[in-house]
Amino acid sequence: MASSISSGLSLKLLTPHRLTHHNPSLVSSPSPSIGAAAHFRPQRVAREVPPTTLSSYSNDVVLPSKPAGLEKDPRELWKRYVDWLYQHKELGLYLDVSRVGFTDQFFQEMELRLQKAFKDMVELEKGAIANPDEGRMVGHYWLRNPKLAPKAFLTQQIEKTLDRICEFAEQVISGKISPPQGVKFTHILSIGIGGSALGPQFVAEALAPDNPPLKIRFINNTDPAGIDHQIAQLGSELASTLVIVVSKSGGTPETRNGLLEVQKAFREAGLDFAKQVLVSDGVAITQENSLLDNTARIEGWLARFPMFDWVGGRTSEMSAVGLLAAALQGIDIKEMLDGAALMDEANRTTQDMVVLPYKDSLLLFSRYLQQLVMESLGKEFDLDGNRVNQGISVYGNKGSTDQHAYIQQLRDGIHNFFVTFIEVLRDRPPGHDWELEPGVTCGDYLFGFLHGTRSALYANNRESITVTVQEVTPRSVGALVALYERAVGIYASLVNINAYHQPGVEAGKKAAGEVLALQKRVLAVLNEASCKEPVEPLTLEEIAERCHAPEEIEMIYKIIAHMAANDRAVIAEGSCGSPRSFKIFLGECNVDEMY
Ligand SMILES: O=P(O)(O)OC[C@H]1O[C@H](O)[C@H](O)[C@@H](O)[C@@H]1O
């Protein structure tokens, strides 16, 4: 319990002394607009509890009804606001932690742990094996400051890759690199999942212009209907679509399946997937010599960009994974890198903060952060092998939409979270706003809803942080990504866990592989029985027995139901409500088939 609460408080730990660069002018800014809310729920997740999702979370942690440091006197609260307001002038970014109930004593108590966390960060940036389980360095900070990399060849790799990304994007946008059947590429189809999709999706939503040089679509699952939908939406523009396959490992099944499905769509459209013949070409961003990398080389794909071993999937937005897609959409990636570098610098020299932003265009930030935070911090064991079951749940969409969905529970229901508001001061580009009521714009409403919600939550002892940015720009987005990457790293040091591995994810992947292996055995058993004369229909028990997996009968039932629903020649006769009565056989016997 204590550590859960400190999880929440850790977001404040990053400002261990009062930050003096406050800017009172922010307070009187004439027409600030709102952002949206996203929520962290600090908690220890019990081992038996299934992974927390946006819609389901356990109630095992409830915060005190009124945290000790919550100030209620409006004048004192204003003083607290001004005293603690942090401003990064160059980035135009502000952090307000006044609505969090920490005390001065809390920081004194945390002093030593914080110093250690900052020292850990210094070591990490110097190239320490900060991911001991995988024996890897953690180098995403070098991506925006290549000189920081511990070896000259790493610096060169980063710089060279960035140059190639810029050059490649320029050639595609200008039409120097073009699809065989057209003058220019018009679309990108990005195939990837997890860290190989969430960053590029977030950045596209946040920063792509209304009419980008290339419009981007994503395939980030192995749902055939979803893939079909993306391809159907492209229609004839498949011929001018640049496919980007993104996978660090080069072996993620969802991504491989997406690639195979897209290749098939190209074949069926009479287009050649590989660059040497007609249409769109693939670009592999992967580890050198991975399966995917080799395929790309052998098939002569347009280009290959490296994804470095020392960059994790969920911190890869500033690598080729994020930058290539962004550059192709006309987003200023150098500005993104600059914003991130400035934020890194601020975090090194002046201790910092942690939060969540938005505005409609920042809608996907919480989804992006969900992976960054939950995959990094949701760990069973600490670095010394103690079971700690750490984690912070992240969820949220955008304000004021969320006001009409779940703010009711946040204010009045279970108290196991804190909110981070992201405020974007600029409502619209200059000259475009208008008053929909005398003296009031649409953006003023959004502003009002943000601050109204913040006040209403605070009145009921619900804490919040507010991050304010002037505008959603490549620079501010880069800074926000960097802010959270750093926050996650520091938090992990504070609670002594490895933020850079994901052992829990492997369990689900392994189990999925076992289901597919069982399906093959089921098919082999059914095939053998169905090839008999006469056909030998089998009960579920008999199939399970013949598969030497009697304990898997429920899974076998599900496999058969799924195959039957998909016209896979599986016939199950019997009463719908009583699976035990089923007699199952294959409509087709394939004597040659080897499952
Ligand atoms: O980039 P890939 O190797 O295809 O990996 C995609 C995703 O796979 C796994 O599920 C990991 O837990 C994620 O961290 C990763 O982002």
Can you describe this structure?
The chain has 595 residues and is an alpha/beta fold. Helices cover 42% and strands 12% of the residues. It contains 18 helices and 15 strands. It has a 6-stranded mixed β-sheet. Strands 5-4-6-7-8 form a 5-stranded parallel β-sheet, with helices on both faces. Strands 11-12 form a two-stranded antiparallel ribbon. Helix 6 (198-207) links the parallel strand 4 (187-191) and strand 5 (215-219). The longest helix has 28 residues, at 503-530. The model is unreliable at 1-59, 275-284 and 352-358 (pLDDT under 50). The site of 6-O-phosphono-alpha-D-glucopyranose has 14 residues, from loops.
Compact overview of the structure:
Keywords: Gluconeogenesis, Glycolysis, Isomerase. With 595 residues, the chain is α/β, with parallel strands linked by helices.
Please render the helix and strand layout as text:
Blueprint: H1 2-13, H2 24-27, E1 37-42, H3 74-84, E2 86-88, E3 93-96, H4 104-125, H5 152-174, E4 187-191, H6 198-207, E5 215-219, H7 224-234, E6 241-246, H8 253-268, E7 282-286, H9 291-298, E8 303-306, H10 320-328, H11 333-349, H12 365-377, E9 392-396, H13 407-412, E10 418-424, E11 435-437, E12 440-441, H14 442-459, E13 464-469, H15 474-494, H16 503-530, H17 540-546, H18 553-565, E14 570-573, E15 583-586
Parallel strand pairs: 4-5, 4-6, 6-7, 7-8, 10-13
Antiparallel strand pairs: 1-9, 1-10, 2-3, 3-13, 11-12, 14-15
Bound molecules: 6-O-phosphono-alpha-D-glucopyranose.
6-O-phosphono-alpha-D-glucopyranose binds at residues 193-196, 247-249, 252, 255, 313-314, 375, 502, 505.
